[in-house]
Each structure stands twice: as structure tokens, then as C-alpha cells.
């Protein structure tokens, strides 16, 4: 059975680590206050089923010793994937006897859990055996040492597939990872077109940044629809296939939120980053991905571009929530219909 090396101990990474530790070996690669906490304390893992204290093996990335059979799971934000992949790529992988059998890039499968469309391409610069994953888990991390997941009856869902040329190592890892996730109450869909699934999710993700802006909910809904429509036009112009939102649903009975453990709507990953005052966020790889594709293919993406600029500027000033700017998006949508 594989050991999972989960890089990143935020909401999704810590949730995967806590769940998978019930079934197999897990090591978490963390940094800063997360690493300091996990070295000496258990993770508090709150779900709709109850509260657990989970001891995790946590290391800094320069302390990590890789072994044959490991599966690398990148749970950092999209903007950090390239740096992490480069750091891991040429680390030696050891056999049970301690012999070096190759490098991580050559021998180990790597799973990318990120939103957006860029993570798989970034990893492919180094790694031969990549697996894309689209994660549908309502996980919250706003306090060091505690993660909350509101999903029920399962913790959430994951779409898994190889984005590029299939390899035997990659195919085996998809099957094993899927089985391990199902065993710890995470729904899985194995797909031959993970890129299409990721493109479908970005149509939802471009609206995430609206959660940090103050204003009327009706305006958020209006601008959210306009952002999504604009993203659809851009993806079409770029020749990127996407599906319907219903294609993301794995279990129709699944619900995502549980107010009893304070996992409520409107607090997705971008909101959590801004609520913590984090200086780094995914917006440049969500709305920014649409802006990039629009520039490359000569089409308009003024709303996604404006939202990216609003949140980028706000992040430079320390983040926070209930920020100004929604009214400017409403004005832009009214004055300049996208084309």
C-alpha cells in the first residue's frame, strides 16, 4: 500500500491527510505555523460525524525522504505548484534497502489537487506520471491546527484522471488513490478527460472572489453569471472543452455545508485566504487564467480582468473581507456589455 506525501497542510491538504491516515501511511509537508503546530500537536478534524484529534507525521520539504511506492499529492495553491514541483523533482527515491532507484520526477506519480487549468502543465515540466484531480470538498481552514469539513453523507468528492499521455505508473496510482479515497468516505469519479472537468469547474471558480466583496447578494448573483458567461466565451475561443455544472456532481445526495460546525456557503478558498490576510491567493490562476486566455486569443474578458485587479490590489493592502469594488463591476457590466 502506498504512502501519501501530502504537500500543503491547508484546508484540503489537512483534510486529505486526516482522512487517509485512517487507512495508510501519510506524511505531511508543511511550513511556518502549520508545521510548528503539527510537530507538537494533533490536528483537530471537525466533520459532520464528530471531532477527532489526528496525529500527523509533519516535515519541512527539505527534510523529506522519499521512498519507492510513494504518491505525491500537491495540495498547495496553484501559484505555488511550479516551485514545489521543481523542489521535489530531483529528490532521490530510495528502495526499502536504502538504495537510490531514481528521482521523484522519473519514478513517482504526482497528483495535483488545484483549481484552475495551470497546475498539470506546470508539473509536466518535470514529472512523467501526473494525475489531475478536481476536488469537491467544503473544507475550512481559518485557524491554525483545525480543519472543518461540512460534507455529508461523504466528506466530499474527487474527479481523478491522467491529463496527458497515460503511463502505467500513473494508471496504477489512479486506481489505488481512488480505492483509498473511497475507503475513507470520499466519493471518486475516474475520468478519461480530467482537463474537461477542470475547465468545467473554473466556470464556478471565477465567481469565488465575489465572496470577499461587500454589497447586495443580488449584485453578486448578477456579476457571477456575467463572469461565468465571459469565461465560457473565452474557453470556447481558446478551443478548451468544458461541460455542464451537473457533470461535476458525483453523488446527487451529497450536501456540502453544515452550520453546526460553521461550514457555511460563501467561504470558499479565496475567501479563506483573504480572511486570514494571506498575501498569496488563487485569483491570478482563476480570473487571471481567463484574462490570460482572452489576451492570447484576442477576445474580451473585462469583468474577469477587473475582478483580478480588484483582488490583487486588495491583497497588497493586507486582504480582509467585505471589501469595496462590487459596484464597479456592476457599472462595468452595465456600461460595457462583453463581446
- Total beta strands: 15
**Widest sheet: strand ordering:** 5-2-1-7-10-11-14-15
Content-based structural category: alpha/beta
CATH class of the largest domain: Alpha Beta
Averaged pLDDT, please?
Answer: 96
Q: What is the helix fraction of residues, given as a range?
A: 25-40%
Distance between the termini: 52 Å
List keywords for this structure.
single chain; 6PGD_dom2; KPR-Related; alpha/beta; 38% helix; KPR_N; 339 residues; N-(1-d-carboxylethyl)-l-norvaline Dehydrogenase, domain 2; Rossmann fold
Account of the protein in words:
This protein folds into two domains: 4-192, Rossmann fold, CATH 3.40.50.720; 198-335, N-(1-d-carboxylethyl)-l-norvaline Dehydrogenase, domain 2 (Orthogonal Bundle), CATH 1.10.1040. α8 crosses α12 and α10 crosses α11. It has twelve helices and 15 strands. β8 and β9 form a beta hairpin. It is globular, with a radius of gyration of 20 Å. The protein has 339 residues and is of the alpha/beta class. An eight-stranded mixed sheet has the order 5-2-1-7-10-11-14-15, with helices on both faces. It has a four-stranded mixed sheet with strand order 4-3-13-12. It has a three-stranded mixed sheet with strand order 6-8-9. It starts with a strand and ends with a helix. The chain is 38% helix and 19% strand. The chain has helices at residues 11-20, 32-40, 81-89, 104-107, 119-124, 168-183, 194-205, 217-237, 269-275, 287-297, 302-316, 326-335; strands at residues 4-7, 26-29, 43-47, 50-54, 57-59, 66-67, 71-74, 92-94, 100-103, 110-112, 130-136, 139-143, 146-149, 156-161, 186-190. The model has no long low-confidence stretch (mean pLDDT 96). Residues 5-152 form the Ketopantoate reductase N-terminal domain. This is 2-dehydropantoate 2-reductase. InterPro entries: 6PGD_dom2 (IPR013328), KPA_reductase (IPR013752), KPR-Related (IPR051402), KPR_N (IPR013332). It holds the Pfam family ApbA_C. Residues 213-312 form the Ketopantoate reductase C-terminal domain.
Amino acid at each position: 500500500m502506498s504512502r501519501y506525501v501530502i504537500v500543503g497542510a491547508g484546508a484540503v491538504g489537512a483534510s486529505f491527510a486526516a482522512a487517509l491516515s485512517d487507512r495508510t501511511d501519510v506524511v505531511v509537508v508543511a511550513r511556518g505555523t502549520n508545521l510548528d503546530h503539527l510537530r507538537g500537536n494533533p490536528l483537530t478534524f471537525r466533520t459532520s460525524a464528530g471531532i477527532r484529534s489526528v496525529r500527523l507525521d509533519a516535515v519541512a520539504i527539505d527534510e523529506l525522504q522519499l521512498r519507492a511506492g510513494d504518491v505525491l499529492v500537491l495540495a498547495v495553491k496553484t501559484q505555488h505548484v511550479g516551485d514545489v514541483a521543481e523542489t521535489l523533482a530531483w529528490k532521490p527515491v530510495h528502495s526499502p534497502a536504502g538504495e537510490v532507484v531514481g528521482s521523484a520526477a522519473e519514478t513517482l506519480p504526482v497528483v495535483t489537487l488545484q483549481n484552475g487549468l495551470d497546475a498539470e502543465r506546470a508539473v509536466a515540466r518535470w514529472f512523467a506520471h501526473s494525475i489531475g484531480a478536481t476536488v469537491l470538498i467544503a473544507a475550512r481552514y481559518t485557524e491554525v491546527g483545525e480543519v472543518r469539513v461540512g460534507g455529508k453523507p461523504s466528506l466530499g468528492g474527487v474527479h481523478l484522471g491522467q491529463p496527458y499521455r497515460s503511463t502505467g505508473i500513473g494508471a496504477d496510482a489512479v486506481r489505488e488513490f481512488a480505492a483509498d479515497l473511497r475507503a475513507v468516505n470520499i466519493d471518486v469519479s475516474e475520468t478519461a478527460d480530467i482537463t474537461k472537468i477542470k475547465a468545467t469547474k473554473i466556470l464556478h471558480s471565477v465567481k469565488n472572489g465575489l465572496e470577499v466583496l461587500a454589497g447586495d447578494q443580488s449584485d453578486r448573483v448578477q456579476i457571477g453569471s456575467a463572469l461565468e458567461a465571459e469565461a465560457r466565451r473565452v474557453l470556447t475561443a481558446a478551443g478548451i472543452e468544458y461541460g455542464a455544472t451537473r457533470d461535476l456532481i458525483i453523488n446527487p445526495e451529497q450536501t456540502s455545508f453544515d452550520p453546526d460546525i460553521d461550514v457555511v456557503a460563501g467561504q470558499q478558498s479565496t475567501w479563506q485566504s483573504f480572511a486570514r490576510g494571506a498575501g498569496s491567493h488563487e485569483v491570478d490562476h482563476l480570473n487571471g487564467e481567463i484574462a490570460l486566455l482572452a489576451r492570447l486569443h484576442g477576445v474580451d474578458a473585462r469583468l474577469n480582468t477587473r475582478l483580478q485587479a480588484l483582488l490583487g490590489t486588495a491583497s497588497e493592502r493586507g486582504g480582509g473581507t467585505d471589501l469595496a469594488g462590487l459596484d464597479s463591476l456592476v457599472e462595468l457590466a452595465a456600461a460595457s456589455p462583453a463581446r
